[in-house]
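QA checklist item 7 of 12: single-chain prediction sanity check.
[x] sequence parsed
[x] length recorded as 281
[x] structure emitted
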Amino acid sequence: METYTLSNGVKIPTVGFGTWQAENGEQAKNSVLEALKAGYRHIDTASAYKNEESVGKAIRESGIPREEIFVTTKLGSRFHSYELAKVAIKESLERLGLDYLDLYLIHWPNPIALRDNLWQEANAGTWQAMEEAYNEGKIRAIGISNFRKHHIEELMKTAKITPQVNQIFLNPSDQQEELVAYSTQLGMICEAYSPLGLGRIFEIKELADLAEKYNKSVAQLVLRWSLQKGFLPLPKSVTPERIAENIQLFDFEITPEDMEYISTSFKGVAGVTSDPDNVSF
């Protein structure tokens, strides 16, 4: 597995396995076990997914040394404050059964409970708790998710450590170019959740035709596009064949012409990101 290097020197595998909507229990555990068997070494979960226990069980049952697996989880929207964030980090570690996290993210910048201009102070306190956990060795890297430029600017007014990752909705349908450029300028890796456009990318005939040219699936084509854009895609599946297929991305390269075609031809056709200032949670 190839890696990127975060701004603090930590190596992160260039493809992660997403677990959103994988039900806690056998489904989540078995999908993570299949992913590790297929060669993934980067597992992404969140407290909001309610499957951290199963992800942790899979990591232990895999027999793979802990230091070889990069584990990400995220702070839930009910824990935005200095004291609550400390509790959230402790509880995620307990649910996962781990001594440390490789990456911890604030999942959403502006929860509905903080919508009346309280989110700035809440994020500042949350980030302070994350920085302390980072300095204590409980977390190897810290970052954000679904943050737009104004959220990042507010965070940086008090942050001592610049986020190392911004995990956002990224695929050919919505590339968030300005946000990617700004995050990258600050030294962040942009992780792509829903890199296949919530599955709607498979309905595009032109992409199917292009995938056939490379003797690859549509998923492999679009995930390879994500890699060549410098993103870190997080494909999710509970089907063993697709789990294995989605990591077979390193034996071909999309031409510059086809990269341009994918980047310019399908905007908006497979969904766009949610506005983090107006989500209902």
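[x] summary fact logged: The first strand starts at residue 3 and ends at 5.
[ ] second reviewer sign-off
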